[in-house]
Amino acid sequence: MKFIVLSYLPWNKYGNRGIDIMIHALAKNGINIDVIKFPTYITQIRRKSTMDLIKGKIELVNDTMITSKTAISVGIPYGEKYFGWLKSRSIYNLLRLMTIVTVPRIKFENYDAVIVESGKCVFFYDILSKINIPIIYRQSDSIELIGSKNPLFINDEHRLIELSDLTLVVNNNVLNYYQQKYPKYANKMIVWESGFCVPENFSVKVAHDKLQHTAIYFGIYPIDIELLVKVAKKTPNVHYIIIGPDISTKTSQTVTQECPNVEFRGFTPQEEALPLIANCSVAIMPYVNGRVHEYSYLTSKFLLCMYFGVPIVTVDYGLLKKLASYGIHVAKDADEFADYILQLTKDSTKKRYNYNIDFSYYSR
Questions:
Q1: pLDDT 10s digits, 332-351
Q2: pLDDT per position as a tens digit, 125-146
Q3: Of 247, 193, 207, 224, whose CA–CA distance to 349 is shortest?
Q4: Residue 351 DSSP class
Q5: Is the peptide bond before 286 cis (omega within 30 degrees of 0)?
């Protein structure tokens, strides 16, 4: 049996994304997987890693094969910043159709099922309407609730949900939304919660030393730069490492000039990030306020830090308030955020928590 997965990132055996965990689980059950990274625009082909993906990368899980490739799109990159305001169906469709003209062409008829991740992969809905294999939509982030304000993009997601045999949503809050507003969609939905992954045979010794305390943020969700600066200034003896979010060079330079204890590392491979996370003094989640917090809270980022026993400080937006019940520090403003960090780093011993949570339920 062989499945194809359309995903905006290639599969990562160290990854904590829900789609990565799902792919690994399917492979462990003997299903061969072709992962197609989509879209990759011609203008984005700069790194050797992208060129390697064009050729294809093969990994084995037991005796099952996972192949990661990328489909090159010839169109103009669609982004909310530039096209989120677009109301013209004809121009939008032109952008969408140019994007799904890929090289090489994807031959869906060669597979037993297709799994589509949320995001620009929903552009394929009209092609998928012509195939005769089961379609599973993995909605990691609802385009309607979180991903876009563009009604045309949102409508594409609706079409894919209607077309799919099954839609997997991340929690009951999202499911309840669809049950109330779109009951016909909810009839084909189930909750498939986000988990987390610690690679097999991975272990790290927590260093209880007198080195400078470190606070780490990792992820792609935007962070509140103003809050970060205020907190960093109040805690000058803590070294802040920021991994992952798309922050402009100008912004990062301005912050580091004001706060020399802040370091922006950009994208960092998971295998390099894990030891940093496991050994940090405190994990910080200084998110910007947004609608996403009305529908999501216990994500893989929190679960991974909790698994390592790392103290966590976050903000009190939306459902994030619920995290206090797990022993996570939820701050109402920058002053309280800094106070929590000062408490957690007031001596040389790194604190470790025993979080009351069933990690076997959330991990693969």
A1: 999 999 999 999 998 877 88
A2: 988 999 999 999 999 889 999 8
A3: 207
A4: P
A5: no
Mean pLDDT confidence for 162-182: 95
For 23, half-sphere exposure in the C-beta direction (CA atoms, 13 angstrom radius) is 32
Name 95's Cβ contacts closer than 8 Å, sequence gap at least 6. Answer: 75, 76, 78, 83, 86
Burial per residue of 183-217, b for 16 or more beta-carbon CB atoms within 10 angstroms, e otherwise: eebbeebeebbbbbbbeeeeeeeeeeeeeebbbbb
Q: DSSP letters along 68-136, please? A: EEEEEE-SPPP-HHHHTT---HHHHHHHHHHHT-EESPP-GGG-SEEEEESSGGGGGHHHHTT--S-EE
Angle made by CA atoms 99, 39, 137, in degrees to the nearest 5: 100
pLDDT for res 257 = 96
pLDDT digits (tens, 9 = 90+) for 60-83: 777 787 888 777 776 677 777 777
C-alpha to C-alpha distance for 35 and 8, rounded to whole angstroms:
10
Determine phi and psi for 65, rounding to 5 degrees: -105, 130
The answer to whether the pTM exceeds 0.70 is yes
- pLDDT, mean of residues 118-128: 90
Both tokens of 33, joined, read: 């997987």
CB 3 within 8 A of CB 114: yes
